[in-house]
Amino acid sequence: MQPQMVSSFNVQLRGAVHAAAGLAVWAALTWFVPPALAQGAPATSQSPSPAVIAQPAAPQAVPGFWDPRRRPDRPDLSRLTVIRFLTETDYPPFNFTGPDGNPAGFNVDLARLICDEIKVACTIQMRRFETLVDAINGNRGDAIIASLAVTPQLRAKLDFSDPYYRSPARFVSRKDAVMAEVRPEYLEGKKVGAIAGSSHEAYLKTLFTDAQIVSFPNDDALRLALRRGEVDFIFGDAISLAFWINGTDSGDCCAFSGGPFTESRYFGEGVGIGVKRGNDVLRQALNWAMFRLWEKGRYTDLWLRYFSVSPF
């Protein structure tokens, strides 16, 4: 699998994801974000002291990327008779081959819900990730639904639907040091680990200037350092960290601290459905269908069925 980079700092959206656990996705619109989670700017000197809690709360965060104040008009769907979705072969739980040999996963089921909402025939073909863009531009498919991160480079090759999930960043600490909220002044003098050269490291160096930032070559080294107590926190992709926290590799050592960070300049615009450039009929139909699925609660039902662990 060839991951698509989520930002100009070349951080992989798909880092170290396992099929052994669920995950959650982020309600990116600010009107869905509780005030305590709307982070990213340095706090003022009047900020309260950090709250350290013995056991972190784990509420289910239901994703919502659609503004109810911007209801899309129903497009002309008469020109759509079939949508040929393309997805990739091995990125569970988003894409994988089911026991019956057919495509399965969150992206696959979302594609089927979209076709049901539009009331159009739908096919789903699995291909290697690196061949998807060429397949669309070679008219071997109509839409890519494969956790494709929207980047300026890909916008030069494809048009995209509205985002249907994104990958925020988040802090993780040992369970006996979990903070309800993380602000720059709370981490003064603390050792915070991040992957060298990543957008997460760049974000820390920009905003958490009083922390002692420790760089690691890869995820395994980063997480092992936290398990051993060699750093106080690590900062990285919340989706892959959710898998690690709730999987066996973590040894039940650690938990999320504070809320998510979603600045698109560092952590990407989100994940959308890619279509051939200029195919506005299909792009608008996809946007309309996804809004309708969210409005009816069907997107939420799908999300809860797949993602039982919230990194938010």
UniProtKB/TrEMBL annotation:
Organism domain of life: Bacteria
Chain ranges of the Solute-binding protein family 3/N-terminal domain: 82-310
Cited Pfam families: SBP_bac_3
Keyword flag Translocase: no
Gene3D superfamilies assigned to the protein according to its UniProt record, in alphabetical order: Periplasmic binding protein-like II
Keywords in alphabetical order: Signal
UniProt-listed SUPFAM superfamilies: Periplasmic binding protein-like II (SSF53850)
Keyword field contains Signal: yes
InterPro entries in the cross-refs: Solute-binding_3/MltF_N
Full protein name: Solute-binding protein family 3/N-terminal domain-containing protein
Species for this entry: Afipia broomeae ATCC 49717
